[in-house]
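Minutes, project check-in
Item: structure for the 276-residue chain
Input as provided by the requester:
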Amino acid sequence: MLAAPLEESASTAGPLKARKRIGIGFVGVLLAVGVSSCGGSRQDVNEPSGDFPVRIVSADFPSKQQLAGNTNLTLAVENSGTKTIPNLAITIFTSSNASTGESGTSTTGAAGTGSGSSAGQSLPEASGSFSVRSEQPGLAIPSRPVWILEEGYPKLEGQTASAGAEAAQTDTYSFGPLPANQTKRIIWNVTPVQAGTYTVHYRVAAGLGGKAKAVTADGSVPEGEFVVRISSAPPQTRVNDSGQVVPIKPGEVIGQAGTGQQKSELKGSSGTSSSP
């Protein structure tokens, strides 16, 4: 004899419906928590609105570099206003001069103050501040690195700990609040891995939400760029007494490369030399 089909009796209907309501409510709570943790809360919810004056004290990045020659990109940003900048944020992105047709001469102003020349430059398309987007069809990953950012960077000058948490915005680093009349000097240590001529753009913001706006003395966006030529010839190096690999300078060939005439020829072949 077959068992009778299970049916909902009057005695079980109430508890079952109650459990269903509780389950639905619990799922709703989980969904609400999930939305909040996945970007449901806006980044600018506590960001003050207004203009925050800044001054780019210095901006340094060698215009001539060689493959595998480690170097620093350094930006010093001062809060020249009277209010604390909520969250100093810097966006760095790279474009290839081969595709943009730029002339290869730097358009940053004196002392690295930036002339606003990159204002018309579109936002970065490559993944990574020091990468460019390849137009070669069929690439699964179109971004190609020009420089490799060394581990632990960027850093604040004089500190060993890394600084500048990567923000949700592409190629943007946030450095936290900057009090009035204070300066942050920030270092990105990079190594070039692709020869060519490239433009590295930088922009300064006072927050990540768009309410707090960084402005220069004339009210423009604080930004600038470096035009860099990377030679395919690797630098001449040697190992010093500390076991470090360092570039060879013409003045170091005394007693090593022979006569004074040879030293003079080496200096001449390297162009103008600067004293260490």
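Outcome recorded: The chain has a mean pLDDT of 75.
No further action items on this chain.
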